[in-house]
Design brief:
Chains A, B: Residues 146-348 form the Peptidase M24 domain. Chains A, B: Residues 8-138 form the Creatinase N-terminal domain. Chains A, B: This is M24 family metallopeptidase. Two copies of one chain form a homodimer. By secondary structure, the first copy, chain A, is an alpha+beta fold. In chain A, strand 10 and strand 11 form a beta hairpin. Chain A folds into two domains: 2-136, Creatine Amidinohydrolase, Chain A, domain 1 (3-Layer(aba) Sandwich), CATH 3.40.350; 138-357, Creatine Amidinohydrolase (Alpha-Beta Complex), CATH 3.90.230.10. The first copy, chain A, has a six-stranded mixed beta sheet, sandwiched between helices. In chain A, strands 7-10-11 form a three-stranded antiparallel beta sheet. The first copy, chain A, has helices spanning 2-18, 29-36, 62-67, 85-95, 110-119, 131-137, 141-162, 171-184, 247-265, 273-286, and strands at 23-26, 44-47, 52-56, 73-77, 100-103, 124-127, 189-190, 195-198, 219-224, 226-228, 231-232, 235-240, 298-300, 307-311, 324-327, 330-333, 337-340, 343-346, 356-357. In chain A, helix 4 (85-95) packs parallel to helix 5 (110-119), helix 7 packs across helix 8 and helix 9 (247-265) packs antiparallel against helix 10. The first copy, chain A, is built from ten helices and 19 strands. The interface between A and B is medium-sized, with 25 and 23 residues.
C-alpha cells in the first residue's frame, strides 16, 4: 500500500512544481491521511525538496505505528510537547533551502500563517488551495472497495432494523441501535450522526433524533452510513408504518423515487454537476414542490461525508468516472412529514454498465 | 436566559473597546454558541456598532429556532445559499461605518481573512485573539449546574455497567453500552469517544476500544463523559477483575490515587496551574515513574472537553473560583497495563468547602 501514498504525493508534487513551488505543507488532517496513510492528531506533511516528512507532536503509537509502513516518508516527531508542527515544517523547509512553500490557505489559520512567516521570513508562502481535495475526487479501486464494504455494512444494519418491531420505539433509540449494529458488523464507526425521523419529522434532511415514538400510519425515514478504513458511505430510506399507506403517502413516495431515479440515471462521465441536480429537481419542481427543496441533490463522498463535487444548481464542472457521489432528493411537508431517498453510487461509463450502486437496500415503499 | 447572552456580549464588547476595536466578528462555533445561545452550522456573530447580528446560511429551524429567544440579537439569514457568513458580516460592519473589526485569527483561515479584506478593504482587521475563550473560563452557576447534571448521568451509566457481568465482553461493546446508557439517562450524547481499556491497555490515556475481551486478573480502566445542554464532563476509573488484586496492582493503584488526591486538594483559587500539575506529578515522579507520564495532570472543561486552563508543567496563570477542571493522573506500564483516575471538579474557595467534586463514583479499588 505504501506505493499508493508515494504516488499520490508525486502527483501533488507535480502540481506544485507546475505552480512554481518546490515544497508544500499539507495541514488538513484528512488530506494528510490521504497522502501519508496515517494522520495522527496535529500532524502535518511536508513535501520537501529532499524528502517527504510527516511532522508529529509525538512518536507514532498503536494503530498509526502499525499502519505506517511507508519508507519514502520519514516520521519526524517534534522534540518538545506543544510545538506547532506547521511552524516546525516551515522551519525545516527553509533549512533545506526551499525558497517557496505552498500552504493550505483554506485550512491554515491566520495566526498559524503569521507564526510560519515569522519563523521563516525569507520563505515565500504560496497557496496550495484545494489541490489535495481535487486529487481526492477520483477514487482508485482500493478506495471504492472500502466504500463498498461500508455500504454493505450499512445495508445489513438497516435490514436488521426492519425485521424488528418498530412501533412504540423512539427515534433516539432506533438511531442508537443502528449505530451499534454498524459497529457489530465491522464499521470503524458511523460515517455521520445517524438520523431517524418519524411522522411529521420524516423526510427532514439531517433531522436530529428526538424522543418521539414510531406510530401507526407514520412515515419513517432513516439516514445512516458506515465508515470503513476511513471511507464513508450514506444510505437513506423512507418507510410507512402499518398495513396500508395513505394515498398522499404513495403519491409523494412515487414522486421522490422518480426524482431520485432520474438523478441516478444522470450519473455518467461528462455530465455536468448541475445537470444531475436538475434531473431530480425539475421533477419535484414540476409537481409543485418548489419550496423547501434541499439546496443540492447530492455530493461527493469518500474520506469525508460531504466532499467535492456538489451536485447543485450553481455547481461548475463535469463528472468523471470513478467519482463516488450521493443522490438524495427529498420533500418535507411541514406538519405532515415527507420522504427522502438517498444512495451512494460510483460514476461509471455506460460501457461498464453505468453508475454502480453501492447501497443496495430496496427502494420499494415498504409497509412495516 | 437571553439576558445571560446579552451580558456576555457586553463583556466582550468592553474588551474590544479597550483594545481599540468598535466591532468584533466571532466565527468559532463554540464561541458563537457561548455568546448567542445557538450556533447553527457556519453561523457567525457580529458585534456591531449599532446592533448584534447572528449571520446564518439559512433561517433558524427546529431546536435552534426554539432556543433563540434573544431579542437583542437579530438573526440575519444570507439571501443566497453558499455565501460566506464571515465575509457578509465584514461587509455589514463596513456598511455600518465601522473602521476596525476584531476577528478570531486563531480560527479564521487565511483564505477567509483574504476574502474579508477584499470585500471591505477600508476596514482595519485586528485580532480578537482568544478573548471569548478567556471569558468562558470562569463559569456561572447555570453552566455549572449543566455540568453537574452531566456528571450525574455519567456516574449513573458507569454505576450500571459495574453491576453487569464484565468478563468475556470486549472493550468495544462495553464502550458502546456506556454510550447507550448516557443517552438513556438524558445526555445530548457522549462528551467524547468513550474509552474502555483492559489488561495491558488499561491506564492508557485516550485508548481506542479494541476487540480484546475482559479477563480475570485484568485492570479495567474506563473513561467517559456526558454532554448536557452543550456542557461536557469527564470521569475515569480503574477497577480490577476477579476476587483479589495482585500486590503490584494495589501498589500502583494506591500511588495514582494519592497523586490524584494531591491534585484535587490543590484546586483552590489562587493556586498556580503548574502547582496543581506538580502536586500530582511529583508523587508519581518520586515513586520512580518518570517515563510515560501524561503531559498534563488536568485541563479546563465546559462547552469543550479540553479547554483552558491547562494544568501542565509550563502553564502560566492561577486558578479562579468557579473554573471547572479535570484531575486525571495515570501510570501505564507497557505490557502490563496501568491505572488512571479522573474527576471533574469546580474550583471553590476554602470558605465554601473547597473544590466541588462533580463526578462522585467511588475511587476505592473495586474488585469486580
Amino acid at each position: 500500500m505504501s506505493e499508493v501514498y508515494a504516488a499520490r504525493r508525486a502527483r501533488l508534487r507535480e502540481r506544485c512544481y507546475a505552480a512554481g513551488s518546490a515544497s508544500a505543507l499539507v495541514s488538513r488532517r484528512v488530506n494528510v491521511r490521504y497522502l501519508a496513510g496515517v494522520a495522527p492528531r496535529d500532524a502535518v506533511l511536508l513535501l520537501g525538496r529532499e524528502e517527504d516528512l510527516l511532522l508529529c507532536g509525538a512518536p507514532l503509537t498503536g494503530r498509526d505505528a502499525e499502519a505506517h509502513l511507508d519508507e519514502a516518508l520519514r516520521v519526524h516527531p517534534l522534540p518538545g510537547a506543544g510545538g506547532d508542527t506547521a511552524v516546525a515544517a516551515a522551519d525545516l523547509a527553509a533549512a533545506q533551502g526551499a525558497d517557496s512553500l505552498a500552504v493550505e490557505e483554506h485550512h491554515l489559520t491566520v495566526a498559524r500563517h503569521r507564526a510560519i512567516r515569522s519563523v521563516a521570513p525569507r520563505l515565500l508562502l504560496a497557496d496550495l488551495d484545494r489541490s489535495v481535495e481535487q486529487l481526492r475526487l477520483v477514487k482508485d479501486e482500493e478506495e471504492i472497495s472500502c466504500m463498498r464494504v461500508g455500504a454493505e455494512i450499512a445495508d445489513q444494519a438497516l435490514g436488521e432494523l426492519l425485521e424488528s418491531i418498530l412501533v412504540g420505539r423512539t427515534e433516539r433509540h432506533l438511531a442508537l441501535e443502528l449505530e451499534r449494529r454498524l459497529i457489530d458488523h465491522g464499521a470503524d464507526g458511523p460515517a455521520f450522526a445517524t438520523s431517524v425521523a418519524t411522522g411529521p419529522n420524516a423526510g427532514r434532511r439531517g433531522h436530529h433524533p428526538t424522543d418521539r415514538r414510531v406510530e401507526e400510519g407514520d412515515f419513517l425515514s432513516v439516514c445512516l452510513g458506515a465508515t470503513y478504513r476511513g471511507y464513508r458511505c450514506e444510505i437513506g430510506r423512507t418507510f410507512v408504518i402499518g398495513t396500508s399507506p395513505a394515498d398522499w403517502q404513495i403519491e409523494l413516495y412515487d414522486l421522490v423515487f422518480a426524482a431520485q431515479r432520474a438523478g441516478r440515471q444522470a450519473l455518467l462521465p461528462g455530465t455536468a454537476y448541475r445537470d444531475v441536480d436538475r434531473a431530480g429537481r425539475q421533477m419535484l419542481d414540476s409537481a409543485g414542490y418548489t419550496e423547501g427543496l434541499p439546496p443540492l441533490m447530492g455530493h461527493g463522498i469518500g474520506l469525508e461525508i460531504d466532499e467535492d463535487p456538489q451536485l447543485a444548481p450553481a455547481a461548475m464542472g463535469k463528472l468523471d468516472a470513478c467519482v463516488p457521489v450521493t443522490v438524495e432528493p427529498g420533500v418535507h411537508l411541514p406538519g405532515r412529514g415527507g420522504v427522502r431517498i438517498d444512495d451512494t453510487l460510483v460514476v461509471r461509463p455506460e460501457a461498464d454498465g453505468g453508475p454502480e450502486l453501492l447501497t443496495i437496500t430496496t427502494k420499494e415503499l415498504l409497509a412495516l
